[in-house]
Amino acid sequence: MKQIHRLTNAELRLAELIWKNEPIASMKLVQIAQGEYGWSKSTTFTHLKAMIEKGLAQNKNSCVTMLASYDEYIADQSCHYVDEAFGGSLPMFVAAFTSNRKLTNEQIAQLKRLIDEHDEGGE
Q: Which of 15, 25, 62, 95 has its CA 20 to 30 A from that of 122?
């Protein structure tokens, strides 16, 4: 997957509106952003333009869509965080995450399933 650029908090708020409503007419997006956040038309279009320049959204014929799904965005940002904060070490991340909290049996089972599904040396 291509690297998805980080979004500002305002851009992320706008992206969430688009993901929830896409495809959406640009003027309808302006109306929703105004109702949800009190943004003006120019504020909405400024943030949309930044997202387009980052390659995450498009506005074709006044129809706005995202170029990556919410799940793709979250996966990319999670990987970026693990790379930055833990040198790309998933075990170090899990150790830090669980250092002061207990995992439930269900969480442990889910993690084991994920490991089994992604085992490169599996049968």
A: 95
Confidence at residue 4, expressed as pLDDT on a 0 to 100 scale: 67
Q: At what angle do helices 9-21 and 70-86 cross, to 10 degrees?
A: 150
**Are residues 29 and 80 both part of a single domain?**
no
Same domain, 60 and 14: yes
Residue 22: domain span: 9-68
Per-residue pLDDT tens for 14-58?
Answer: 999 999 999 999 999 999 999 999 999 999 999 999 999 998 999
What values do phi and psi take at 87, rounded to 5?
Answer: 60, 30
Same domain, 88 and 111: yes
User: Parallel, antiparallel, or unpaired for β 57-60 and 63-66?
Assistant: antiparallel
